[in-house]
Amino acid sequence: MSLLSDLLNLDLSENTEKIIAEYIWIGGSGLDLRSKARTLPGPVSDPSKLPKWNYDGSSTGQAPGEDSEVILYPQAIFKDPFRRGNNILVICDTYTPAGEPIPTNKRANAAKVFSHPDVVAEVPWYGIEQEYTLLQKDVKWPIGWPLGGFPGPQGPYYCGAGADKAFGRDIVDAHYKACLYAGINISGINGEVMPGQWEFQVGPAVGISAGDELWAARYILERITEIAGVVLSLDPKPIQGDWNGAGAHTNYSTKSMREDGGYEVIKKAIEKLGLRHKEHISAYGEGNERRLTGRHETADINTFLWGVANRGASIRVGRDTEKEGKGYFEDRRPASNMDPYVVTSMIAETTLLWKP
């Protein structure tokens, strides 16, 4: 094995200018990440300088067999924490050969929203709190849980330490460092309320980059769990019963909200979000009705409610924001399996472009 790891860790830069680019895209389910690698003649830092590529869309549920070619457009570059050196990870989106975005390409519409002059002028910032659960590979049961049984009730696990409270910290820490290495603006990690569940935060990120960075962070986490022999679940309610679900709380602010008088702007934005509650819920992730029950720090899925420092609300405003009269708010409705391109662009569209 040592020879294998020696080869995996070979530093190519001593012998060749060539680099490896791992092209990453979202598959047909809207949640499955796919990737393949190609050799490039030398280092690249600008996605527009990268060649387009293609793949067999009939094998990812994105095209029919008789016309299966889907084209990858490179959109964002991150350093590759697995191959290191000048090698890169490339976040791509997906198009027909004629240049039309395919139906599962949610980035294309988000890019339109984020390039709208009214949105650009407001410099929207996002901070996304990605919760996830680590499962044992063959039984799909959370790591650290007794097989076919349950651990002690929730309470000691949130931000806990110790072999009987924190399960999978090595994976979490490896992911944290790998994201920092890659150039992702990961801002923190913590153990969650349910044992075997963790969270990382990405942001603040501006506009479309929030989606690019979150998808890159998810890809890196999939790769690390693959190495560890553990399964990553983004299910919003992986275990039924008296256990917390998993969300992707999305923190949001605009230039006007961050400036003096911003609290009034925040209240108007929240009012607009309330008027489009149903549309947002339908776009905020699959299976969210199992999570948004009005229990376990959630608001009921059919109710729109906002409040200061209220974790049982749809939208939470922080005490600091209320006190300073400016700042940001947190949309607590998105599920852990939401598409960040959809959620971030929809929040910007509703609060900045939609006229009720």
UniProtKB/TrEMBL annotation:
The keyword Ligase applies. GO terms for cellular component: cytoplasm. GO terms for biological process: glutamine biosynthetic process. GO terms for molecular function: ATP binding; glutamine synthetase activity. Homooctamer. It catalyses: L-glutamate + NH4(+) + ATP = L-glutamine + ADP + phosphate + H(+). This is Glutamine synthetase. It comes from Ceanothus thyrsiflorus (Blue blossom). It is found in: Cytoplasm.
